[in-house]
Amino acid sequence: MSYARLLLDVKPDSSPVDLGLRAAAIDALNDCTQACIADTDADLGEHNVAEMVTCIRLCLDCADVCTAAAAVMSRPSGYDPGVARPLLESCVAICTSCGDECERHARMHEHCRICAEACRRAEQASRDLLNAISDQG
Q: Rounded mean pLDDT of the chain?
């Protein structure tokens, strides 16, 4: 069980969205943030840094957006669906873009392959949570 789930269980809110789904999204977003930060650092150490500029920029954006979304979704007193929806939509968008870019480099750089995988997981978890929130009204 994740710490996100443990903390959400301590003070569950009145949201009809499944806490397990919410915790899975928080974990995926936090993992994506960590992967993007590590990938950025590894990209900066590559011989052809100029070839990695787009990847670096997207990873930085992805880490920032995922961090914000995880923070909002982590609040045990609940969240505002009007804020959560566009934030999760932003996560889907940036995780897609960052994942695509990292996949371009994945054959040459293992750190990019791992980051792409984390982006795909966060993208899917964000979609799943977004769908659950949207289904609730």
A: 92
